User: Fold these one by one.
Assistant:
Number 1:
Amino acid sequence: MIKVLFVCLGNICRSPMAEFVMKDMVEKRGIADNFEIASAATSDWEIGNGVYPPAKKKLSENGIDCTGKTARQMTKADYGYYDYIIAMDEGNLRDMVRFVGDDPDGKVSLLMEHTSTPRDIADPWYTGDFEQTWKDVNNGCSCLLKKLGF
Ligand code: 4NP
């Protein structure tokens, strides 16, 4: 079982989009049994809140349901439990230090680091561009799956 945790600042836009896109990809490829996939926030700002409506809409326009997902903050225990901790931007990496220390097991990476265009995924909470997030998250997840051998 490969355990993947996607992480962003609020866990209401980018990381839940990545969580549900990745779940959809592994489902469609018939490899879902190989994975446990979740998402969490670095901050405690949105704990308990559902996926932000424009992010939810972008998922549902593409046939992906994220009903029931509520934001949670990551914990130190997540670092032990998950095999891959995938952040959305450099700010997340800085904010994660208190949960992952100096990443002794080398589990932490940026999602776009796995693509041919390594960079941050812009925060649509601020940019309003959920289409760009959708494209980046799809590209990132598909490249990550390839790196994992699928
Ligand atoms: P996310 O976006 O990190 O992609 O979930 C944000 C969501 C909420 C806030 C900031 C970013 N906020 O300030 O509450």
Number 2:
Amino acid sequence: MENKRSSFSNTLGFVLAAAGSAVGLGNLWRFPYLAAKYGGGIFILVYLILAVTLGFTLMITEIAIGRRTGLSAINAFQKLDKRFGIIGYLACAASFIITPYYCVIGGWVVKYLITFLTGNVVAAAEEEYYNGFITGSAEPILWFGVFVLFTAVVVMIGVEKGIERASCVLMPVLIVLTVAIALYCVTRPGAMEGVKYYLLPDFSRFSATTVLAAMGQLFYSMSLAMGTMITYGSYMKKEDNLEKSVRQIELFDTALAILAGFMIVPSVFVFSGGNEEALGKGPSLMFVTMPKVFENMKFGSIIGTVFFLLVLFAALTSSISLMETNVSIVCDKWGWSRKRTTALTTVYVLIMGAVISLGYGSLNFIRILGMGLLDFFDFISNSILMPVIGILTCISIGFFIKPQVVYDEVEINGEFKVKRFYTVMLKWIAPVCLILIVLFAVAEAAGWIQV
Ligand code: PHE
């Protein structure tokens, strides 16, 4: 007897699970930092325009491919056209590369949550605390392991009972906590300056790099070009409205990114007296600057604990989707059972992640293209593989497989309202934008341009 494919039980379950995948570390620290850096309101505006054009196009395409074929990336592309199975393999590579390092950062979040829970706010606010922790050996690997096990258990349980149920609990809590902290942060004395800085457009900072940075952020944030949305689409019921669901997922993802900015930018502003350096790049914003902010805030230890709890929830629903992407590709391709595949994937993630984690400590002599291990894997997956997969997806569907497959899928639930617009985006505008992202990433890595 053929195995019946699992599915999300209804539209809400699907939307919450897909939004759970989309809303993650990318929304919570990367978006606020980029918005602050690239001119506040103007970055947000550019991002919003890109979300409803480019983001919409890619997301509806991927979910439609998944639902149409009922398969994950490799088999889905092969089923549509034998020649394009390669796109699925690339997506598979990307998701296998991202999962371990995403979980390493997830482990850091667990550590900070525990630190805040046990009242060590003062210690956490020290720069050395962060450096001492991530350069260690056993401790970061331990918390990483805890995070991976949480993820694996949910994936092992399955689509409806595991992923859907986890998302339906975690996502509403996440929204409530984010809104509550954002409200608390913007009402602190002096926060309005930060809100202005965050929202008012600074046109002098607008440039082509603003658009390119927004585009890169968009794809990552919406979990596109990794096979994730294809996999989730394959679990979507035919009676759920595709176009509307995509709009809802996008709204969710973008709203949470903007709200995260309200939590972070004004707080950092109050704490640093308007010194923009404090909004420094990368994980240090979340793990060094934010604890300092909480240390100086009234009720900071409580707010800090809640903050890391919500970051943990966001990271978990994303890592679940990443592991699910890997697992469903292997199950579909090689016919293995979910249990066995999840167990083996977990072993792989644990080994790779441990190596990546040690990349900050005893293995920090390993440098590839001048980057440490985590940065290198991030670069390969997000800056190279992701846009390449995006380009190939647009071209293969736009010109060879033909957009009709997407139209058909969308039209199961009524009229495809923006069909013409979608087609132009898919065939022409999206590929050009994606090519620019790759060129930009390569130029940046080679040091030709400064970002
Ligand atoms: N979208 C997630 C985030 O914003 C990351 C992610 C990328 C998850 C690709 C799944 C697939 O953090």
